Amino acid sequence: MKRLVLAVLLVAAAAGGVAAWVVTAQPEWYERIRYPLRYEAIVRTHARNYDLPPALLAAVIYTESKFDASARSDAGAVGLMQLLPETAQGIATRTGGHKFVVGDLLDPEINVRYGSWYLRNLLNRYDDDLPTALAAYHAGQGNVDAWRRRGVGVQFPETRSYVKKVLHAEEVYADAYGDELSGA
């Protein structure tokens, strides 16, 4: 009988320990290793310029490129915020640029400036509905507009996953890098 009670207590304690581990946030040092932050000054500057939370901007960059300024996707997206050259060309034209070349997207300052402008534009277009703006950033405005007209949610599983990843990363960046991102 004592062994049975002891076994039940051990199982309960182990289950409680696992449950506590699952709900407890990771230590800050772990989050900083798992979610690195680079280009803090650029992120802060363009977050401020385009009225975006710095942690959101860092989260998009992390999710898109893991802060690799030379990243290129199979779809042709370039740089930290993985902008398509035609999207960047449109942004350059709308923001006063006249001599855009694709190589500009490898410059972290230009890439984050254009990506921030684009994200702010999407937030404005979708009434500050962050998940919808992020879905449009990932899947394109045409797809999101079509889904909305049909009254359905995001139809691409990879876009649903992308939105979840960015929202989670935003929480992590706000927790782990609050001082660096706020400029304190």
Secondary structure: elements and pairs:
Layout: H1 2-23, H2 28-34, H3 40-49, H4 54-65, H5 85-94, H6 108-125, H7 130-139, H8 141-150, H9 157-176, H10 178-182
Note down, in words, how this protein is organized.
With 184 residues, the chain is mostly helical. It has 2 domains: 1-27; 35-182, Lysozyme, CATH 1.10.530. Helix content is 67%, strand content 0%. It has helices at residues 2-23, 28-34, 40-49, 54-65, 85-94, 108-125, 130-139, 141-150, 157-176, 178-182. Helix 7 (130-139) packs across helix 8. The protein is globular. Residues 4-9 and 18-23 have low confidence and may be disordered.
How many domains would you count in the coordinates? 2
Secondary-structure content class: mainly alpha
How does the overall form come out from the CA principal axes? globular
The arrangement of helices and strands along the chain is: HHHHHHHHHH
> What's the architecture of the largest domain, going by CATH?
Orthogonal Bundle
Distance between the termini: 60 Å
Tally of extended strands? 0
Q: CATH top level of the largest domain?
A: Mainly Alpha
Q: Helix count?
A: 10
Major sheet details:
none
